[in-house]
Amino acid sequence: MTVLSVNINKIAVLRNSRGGDMPSVMQAAEACLAAGCGGITVHPRPDLRHIRPEDVRALGGLLAGTQAEFNIEGNPFADARGEYPGLLRLCAETSPAQATLVPDGDGQITSDHGFDLKRDGARLKPLVRELKAMGCRVSLFMDADSDDIERVAELGADRIEIYTGPFAEAFALGDWQQALEDCAKAAGRAQAAGLGVNAGHDLNQVNLGPFLRAVPQVDEVSIGHALIGEALYDGLAPTVRNYLAVIAAARS
Ligand SMILES: CC(=O)[C@@H](O)[C@H](O)COP(=O)(O)O
Ligand SMILES: NCC(=O)COP(=O)(O)O
């Protein structure tokens, strides 16, 4: 069954807008876990606009006592600049089940592209090795139409995360067959190369079912923006359960 990992960045955005601890990132994670999600995802960024290092550490402690997976996403190159306790240091401190490396620029509003491994492969390789030595599964954020999928395995990583933003955008416009085919092809190539397949970005309760039916290899979806938005109307636990029902229906 495809695992649902809930990205709780947006809980932190709301909290940070006032300071204090309302809404609580920890309470939100506990509610998602109690509702049956299989993991919690966070994507700390150097500007600390949402999830902060202390959140990552506290979540690491919470997740360590459960069967659920902790997935930390982020740009591993920010560590080298020493500006904040970046992805590798946070992984060393919290031992997540999975580290997902994403080639974000610091100023980006959100992630909008996967790795170009011809450019970044050589400097990613030692970082992948370092994370694997910590015991993390390593996933690389990749565009669905990338011609570098097999290279992910050569770098020693375990999975790709397909960047589903273009599919979600095409779906909203009602013309999504090509984007979906690109995702299905990327998943097939990853599987043939011995890699697992994750997917995420702008997935929601409407586009998730068609996506999963077309891409049967998907091990995990990480979903945040839409899920937290929908939870404002329906509640966090019912919304998580709605996503689990979409996944179960697509996999039945
Ligand atoms: C890699 C990815 O698609 C997500 O991690 C997404 O970028 C969430 O980060 P934000 O909440 O900062 O948009
Ligand atoms: N890896 C994708 C993720 O964690 C959530 O992305 P989004 O649902 O907030 O767009």
Structure report:
- The protein has a single domain, classed as TIM Barrel.
- The protein contains twelve helices and eight strands.
- It has helices at 9-16, 25-34, 53-64, 78-81, 87-94, 117-133, 149-154, 165-173, 177-192, 208-214, 225-234, 236-251, and strands at residues 3-7, 39-42, 69-74, 98-101, 137-143, 159-163, 196-200, 218-223.
- It has an eight-stranded parallel beta barrel, surrounded by eight helices.
- α10 links the parallel β7 and β8.
- α8 (165-173) packs antiparallel against α9, α10 (208-214) packs parallel to α12 and α11 packs across α12 (236-251).
Which features does this protein show?
binds the ligand NCC(=O)COP(=O)(O)O, binds 1-deoxy-D-xylulose-5-phosphate, transferase, 8-stranded parallel β-barrel, Pyridoxine 5'-phosphate synthase, PyrdxlP_synth_PdxJ, cytoplasm, 252 residues, pyridoxine 5'-phosphate synthase activity, TIM Barrel, alpha/beta
> Spans of 5+ residues with little confidence (pLDDT < 50)?
none
Listed once per kind, the bound small molecules are: 1-deoxy-D-xylulose-5-phosphate, the ligand NCC(=O)COP(=O)(O)O
Instruction: Please count the beta strands (DSSP E, at least 2 residues each).
Output: 8
CATH fold annotation: TIM Barrel
- What order do the helices and strands follow? EHHEHEHHEHEHEHHEHEHH
Q: What is the CATH class name?
A: Alpha Beta
Please tell me what the overall shape is. globular
What is the distance, rounded to the nearest whole angstrom, between the alpha carbons of the first and last residues?
A: 9 Å
In total, the number of domains comes to 1
Fraction of residues in H or I helices: 40-55%
Which structural class best describes the helix and strand composition?
A: alpha/beta
- Write the CATH architecture name: Alpha-Beta Barrel
Give, in spatial order, the strands making up the sheet with the most strands: 1-2-3-4-5-6-7-8
> The biggest beta sheet, please?
8 strands, parallel, barrel
